Amino acid sequence: MLVLGIESSCDETAAALVRDGREVLSNVVASQVAIHARFGGVVPEVASRAHAECVSRIVERAIADAARSQPATHNPQQTTRPDALAVTVRPGLAGSLLVGVSAASALALAWDLPIVAVHHLHAHAYAPALAGVAEYPFACLVASGGHTSIYECRAPLEVELLGQTIDDAAGEAFDKAAAVLGLGFPGGPAVSRFAASGNPRAYDFPRSKLADADDDFSFSGLKTALLYAVEGPGMKGPRLELTEKVKCDLAASFEQAVCEVLVGKLLAAAARRGLRTVSVAGGVAANRKLRAMLAERAVAEGMRAAVAPTELCTDNAAMVAALGYHQLARGEGRGPDRLALSIAPELERPARRKR
Ligand code: KG4
Ligand code: ZN
Predict the structure, then answer these.
(1) Which of 19, 35, 316, 340 has a CA positioned 20 to 30 A from the CA of residue 268?
(2) If you measure from the C-alpha of residue 49 to the centroid of ligand 1, how many angstroms do you get, rounded to a whole number?
């Protein structure tokens, strides 16, 4: 079954064709980073307009790329016609989600195809399985500009939210740190570039909630600690002179603190549930220090770190099409009321267990 996935929950417009939840024939992503950079963050109204302007083109390109990926002996028209659609409906920016859902519903109506509603974070948590690097069960941290959540993944559609951030997301913390240091947007790549030449022990930033026996995160105290390190305690000067070396040391110390918390809490969550494989997805999974620290610490705990390639970790539609396949395979998305898809911008809270 060939599934066309469409993703537009934040600032990437993406479309992909994936066969049987595993074989990625095309994976097209149009990033709006350049559009939002001058505002220093994603502006929802600007994002939905940009999605609307390019979604048709991105879908066409995904279909064309998939046709090119087929052996010349095949009739490309035949082999790249989707059998079904999968679209992100939650969570995300309401206006952005609506654009993807409208586009996907229109195609499902026009082509008379099944269509399923996909949970964006469950799709991120499917990336390690899609990439073929992790076997179920595993614990997956999804860390991006909007989310920092830990999932227990037992099967593609059997994922349980264990905990999440109670304030800022990890990617958001990187973006805010970059703003304080004057490094531009998006902040993650810039902070880690500076961090590479800095001393991660130069500043002692807080590791909030690292020692707590829950699976939640908090990054707002870390962000404030960085701000106070630069502007003086309570922002009452004297201001630190942001020389190149100081910026590198601050970036390295900040990155070290974020990574220690992400890795420490993920491993603790996995250990509490007896999971031996750990993974990370979302934009922050592009961070090299995070990948290296996770690999090293997992081995020390007798676990295995299995992380998908970056293009399947950042926002993309291949993960949406791939997870959607499993929903279709269990019979979802058929019948006349399949087009009545509704969006759900908010992320649900985890079910609290007694420990
Ligand atoms: O998943 P994503 O592409 O989009 C959403 O937020 O949904 O994630 C983008 C986030 C941004 O906050 C960005 O700063 C962060 O991921 N990011 C990084 C790195 N590359 C991107 N954070 C840390 N280190 C990186 N190398
Ligand atoms: Zn995402």
Answers:
(1) 316
(2) 22
Residue nearest to atom 8 of ligand 1 (CA): 283
| pLDDT value at residue 347 | 83
Burial class (CB in 10 A: 0-12, 13-18, 19+), 309: exposed
User: Taking every pair of C-alpha atoms in the chain, what is the biggest distance, in angstroms?
Assistant: 71
pLDDT at 78: 63
What is the CATH code for 135-307? 3.30.420.40
Cα separation, 311 vs 324, in Å, equals 18
Q: Where in the chain is the domain with CATH 3.30.420.40?
A: 2-126+313-329, 135-307
* C-beta of residue 17 within 8 angstroms of C-beta of residue 62: yes
Give the strand pairing for 158-164 and 148-155: antiparallel
pLDDT tens digits, one per residue of 196-205: 999 999 999 9
Dist CA 249 CA 272 (whole Å) = 34
What are the tens digits of pLDDT across the range 260-302?
999 999 999 999 999 999 999 999 999 999 999 999 999 999 9
User: Do the strands 84-90 and 23-31 form a parallel or antiparallel pair, or are they unpaired?
Assistant: unpaired
Residue 86 clears pLDDT 80, i.e. is over it: yes
CATH topology for 2-126+313-329? Nucleotidyltransferase; domain 5 (3.30.420)
Confidence label for 355 from pLDDT (cuts 50, 70 and 90): very low
What residues pack around ion ligand 2 (CB closer than 5 A)? Answer: 144, 315
Distance, CA of 141 to CA of 122 (rounded, Å): 11
